[in-house]
Amino acid sequence: MASIYQSIEILSKEKGINPQIVLDAVKDAMLLAARKQFKGNEDLAADFDQATGSIVIFALKTVVETVADPQKEIRLADALKLDPEAQIGSVVRIPKPTEALGRISAQLAKQTILQKVREAERENIYTEYADRVGDIVNCTVKRAEGPDLVVDLGKTEARLPKKEQSRLENFEIGERIRCVIKTVEKAGKNSGVVVSRAAPELVMRLFEQEVPEIYDGTVLIRGCAREAGERTKIAVLSKDRDVDCVGACVGMKGMRVQAIIRELRGEKIDIIEYNEDPVTFATHALSPAKISRVTILDSAGKHMEVIVADSQLSLAIGKKGQNVRLAAKLLGWRIDIKTEEEKRQEVEAAMASLASGTPLSVLLDHGLAENVVELLVAGGVGTLERLASMTPEELVTVQGIDEELVGRITAAVNAYYEAYEEGGAQQEQAETQTSGLVLSSAEPPAEAPPAPEAGAEPSPEESDTIESSGLPAD
Predict the structure, then answer these.
(1) Domain 357-417 annotated CATH 1.10.150.20
(2) Do residues 335 and 301 lie in contact, with contact meaning Cβ atoms separated by under 8 Å?
(3) What is the pLDDT of residues 358-397, one digit of tens each?
């Protein structure tokens, strides 16, 4: 026990934590062991003895005239033997023999100390690395734990999970690698630092190190989409019109980008010029395919349609859809790719549908917004008859249509048919009234008028009589 403080100082330096934290942990551990050893309900306290360099355990008792609870109270006469300045109401400290602590108590104290030290370490690690998430770090592969790797950051260890590794990479123990800090957890099962070799931030940090124009802010990285071990698309923008952002990242004879490709073990990298216009940006992002045209279907919902020549379809989609998937991730838009032939057939089908039924534009007069009509047409609902035959469940499957819009569409369709039926009834009633007026105003003549001679034109009075009677005039 005499050298316990020296041991605390050594342990604190090794772990890089405050000695007071370790000292408090030792005190708590000694108290826990003492309570387990001595049992009872005594109030115990621990203190560090500067003279002996050891931890001393005390029982705390209140000075009273008449003792009711011997575990917590002491008579004044007995208290004066321990402390000459004791008085009624004061608390005296009675030393307890630490030698009495058994092996089990010592083991419990050791576990408590280690737990407190680990907690202090985690707190220090979190404080140091929490603000460095996304930063690149140099580390050494220390050991493998199943499919995961444990790497040494210098002051602490970090975990490199299997899902954060590239499929192209295999590392040996002792190999130096570069990673980015993915997350830092203070507590829980996955507490500590987690690093990654698969995150897009790794590519961005590597470009910052390799390209001086990015480091000094002349060229900006505006986005990065990555499928580790396969392909990365990175969008860059130049703040200086005289600096070619793509050329700066590629470097002379491709030296800069080749250095990054070597670091990533041969992963393909597409460097794309960023543009504020989503149509232009999409055209760049889908390279190497040549795009015929881009149509924005829903700007609010970020949905666009890309038309390509038949020969460019496989390039635009990429292997297993990788090219369009990365482009969509880079843009943050949903991208539908169609060939010229597919689009032509779609337009012909829509025109045929419109020609064979009532256009949806009639619903504009019954409270349906124009953008909702456009969503329905884009979703293949081209006529009023087709719309009226759809159930609410079928309508919700149309892109951009939710339950609220279904209610509006239903109300507009019902309003149209009600107006249509009401208009038909009014027309029928008007025809009936007109027919009644004609019959009542044409009084039957007392005798039939003489037939006009052949070739003779009827007089004006005769013409009026013929027309009002409903008979056809020759």
Answers:
(1) yes
(2) no
(3) 778 888 888 888 888 888 888 878 778 888 888 888 888 8
